[in-house]
Structure formats: C-alpha cells, structure tokens
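In the current project phase, the collection of sequences with tokenised folds has grown. One resulting record follows, to show the layout:
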Amino acid sequence: MIKTGLLISLLFISLSGGFECSIPINAPIGSSTSLLKLTEIGEFGLMRKERPGVPAHFHTGIDIKRPSNNYQSEPIFPIANGIVISKRVDGPYAQLIIEHEGEQRFWTVYEHIAGIEVNLFDRVKHDQPIARFMNRNELNRYGWQFDHFHFEILKVEPMRLKQEQSKPERLFASYTLACYTKEDLDKYFYHPLDFLSHYLN
C-alpha cells in the first residue's frame, strides 16, 4: 500500500511542469510559507470544539492573518491559475472556490473574504487579486474574529449544490464541516502549508 506522503509527492511531480504557484497574500514572487501567519486556532487539522449547530470537527484549512496594517484594501490572491467555479457573497461567509488544472486537478477555497473582484467562471491568474481581507467597517459589523481568511486545498471535487435563488452563484461547497476523523481529513484535503512548500521550493 502506497503511503499518503508518497502519493502527495507523486502529485507534485506530475503537476510541476510549467506550474506556477505562490502564496495567497501580497508578497514578493518566490516568497516562502514563512510569511503566512496563522491565527491561534488557525492551524490545519486542529480539533474544533462543538458549538451551537456545528458538531466538533477537524479544521480543514488554515486561517491566515492579515499580513500588514492595511485595513482598507489588503489583497488576497489565488495560489495558481484556475477558474472560479463557485462564489458566495453573504457577508462574513463570502467565499470563492477555484478549480486548478494539471495532470490531476485540485481546488482551493477562500472564505471570510470581502471585495470580491472576480465573477463566476472567470479565469484567474496567480498574480491577480481576487478579493481582500475585510476592512474595519466590515469587521465592526461582523466581528473581529473574522480578521483573517480561511484557506483550503481540496484533493477531490467540492460538493455540487442545487442552485438557490438567494445564492445563485454558489454552485459548490467544501467539506469544511464533514471531517470528524483524521481519515476524513486526509481523504478530502491537502495540508496547505505542505502543499505550498512543495511548489514554492
């Protein structure tokens, strides 16, 4: 049986030809993951406690802190070229899901974002801002616990949703609240920092 680490390495090798990757914040080209600062409970794979309406689950991504004191227009970037396959704009849960092509596909999720600059089915480039961190007015409205954005990298296609009139561009959902075991986590998600480190080095 091939171990998970080997499978991940094989994926990186298969996608490496001509594949450009960068970290999702405003930083010089070639920057390392050391520039990504996480919130106190923002690490991948942490057990999140049960709360009203949400069962205990493993954290499926990382929560990336604002990299500067820019509380007006701090940009967020896709980590690689891709196409926007889902968009929601409902306040603090605003989200983009981007599909990335290669010999094997993968998907990235950006949540708790604001000022979305792209449309559904747009093709995006890794050096093109797609959204921003919430500004002071939005944080005062929704809560300062959202002074970060949640970032995931999926191994499998997100869940296809029935179109809702209230959220017509939200076509997919992640498995964010469906990981109750380490096996679930490994089935659906890559560790974002490990994934980025392989591509950036």
The two ends are 28 Å apart (CA to CA). Confidence is low (pLDDT under 50) at residues 1-17. The chain has four helices and twelve strands. The longest strand covers residues 82-88.
